[in-house]
Amino acid sequence: MASVTTRPPPWRDVRVLRVLLQLLFALGVVAVVTWLFGNLVTNLDQIGLSTDFDFLDQPAGFQILGSDFRASQTVRDAFVVGITNTISVAGIGIVLATLLGVLVGVLSLSSNWLVRKAATIYVETLRNLPPLIVIVFVFSAVILQLPRIQEASEWFGLVIVSNRTIGLTAPAFEGDSAGTYALLLGLGVVAAIAVAVWRTRVHRATGAPHRRVLWGGGVLLVVAVVGWFALGGPLVLDRPQIVGVQIEDGWAMNANYAALLIALVIYTATYIAEIVRGSIQAVDHGQTEAADALALSSFQRLRFVVLPQAFRIAVPPLANQYLNLTKNSSLALAIGFFELTQTTLTIIGNGNPAPQSIAILMAGYLVLSLSIALVTNLVNRRLQLVAR
Question: Rounded to whole angstroms, what are the CA distances from 60 to 7, 227, 256, 257, 349?
Fold first, then answer.
């Protein structure tokens, strides 16, 4: 005779209690937020401050150094410049810090005593300093000690270095066919990715070397070269040049921006190096023994066996360092660089309402943090091993 299972009453059912507790917690959070918001609105009304965002359409009343922003432009435009500068520092900084951190992390496990100790000294020195100290040091002891713009150093006509602006040669589109060439390059990137995917499938099906980078890069190079000659050279190298006390053309970096970027990269790279070192050491030693048994070289062992497995371990903590780098960019207010925080404080200092401005500031960092977390979570999920 089949046994009959009876569910417990709702007040004893774990599933019902779990849902009920979550609902009560959510209602509690909503109630607290509603009370805080109502209290804020009431206090602002009592002191005669507006709660709307109409101030965004008012003239900012200040200039932003290192940009074309004018005092007559709106507060909304100032916020856009601030968030753009923050994204620029965070995006470039994450890439450079990752490359430097991986390199230092690998070198810290080198069999060469001098290389290993140099990497260790670098990590242990900067990792134990506050990031603000690193930023101020790079700005005052490195950037400000560069020659003045009137005496700027030029390197091979490609780089101009001064304590005001640093100019780098950058590719630039010019001519009527520039748009067509840009579209062609985009199609070339798509074709390169498709070829790389195809080579990956061939590798999995036959075991033949995939050489994704070689095949994909070759396709992109052919498209770029053929398109460049066919369209009359629409892509040129735009070299910087000194005009008065400014550097024009190329990619001109404000000295404050350069100091912030360098400081955040060398500081965050120390934490990334430790993550990479620990992740490499966490790879089972039998994997390296198997690589040695296959007569792989040291580089091949690292490239094809150790690092791919280490990155599966390293991605979650790397995401935290990317978030830290993005949020540490707010320390740029110490050197006067107009990222999001400095821009917000300047807007408030010009008589604009602080609560709404701070709310925009918090929302900006929240969106950036969630975006970074989303991308790193997708990468982490892609690298996970799926049991079959």
Answer: 65, 44, 21, 22, 11
CATH number assigned to the domain comprising residue 354: 1.10.3720.10
Could you tell me the pLDDT band of residue 2, with boundaries at 50, 70 and 90? low
pLDDT tens digits along 253-310: 888 999 999 999 999 999 999 999 999 998 888 888 888 788 777 778 888 788 888 8
CB within 8 A of 353, min separation 6: which ones?
44, 49, 50, 51, 55
User: Which residues neighbour 245 within 8 Å (Cβ) at sequence distance 6 or greater?
Assistant: 149, 150, 164
Give the separation between CA 19 and CA 39, rounded to whole angstroms.
30
AA identity, residue 46: Q
> Shortest CA distance to 376 belongs to which of 290, 327, 314?
314
Query: Is 293 part of any domain?
Result: yes
Residue 203 included in any domain = no
Helices 75-107, 354-383: axis angle to 10 degrees equals 40
**pLDDT digit string, tens, across residues 88-102:** 999 999 999 999 999
Residue 68: both structure tokens together:
């074309």
What is the dihedral angle through the alpha carbons of 18, 19, 24, 28, rounded to the nearest 10 degrees? 100
Total tally of structural domains belonging to the chain:
1
Would 291 be classed as within a structural domain?
yes
Output the average pLDDT for the chain: 88
Question: Which domain range does residue 83 map to?
Answer: 75-141+252-382
Q: 335 with 139: CB under 8 angstroms?
A: yes
**75-107 and 113-127 helices, crossing angle to 10°:** 150
- The alpha carbon of 116 is separated from its chain's Cα centroid by a whole number of angstroms, namely 28
Give a yes or no: residue 261 inside a domain.
yes
Residue 380 CB contacts under 8 Å (≥ 6 apart), including other chains:
315, 316, 319
Whether the CB-CB separation of 368 and 113 falls below 8 Å is answered with no
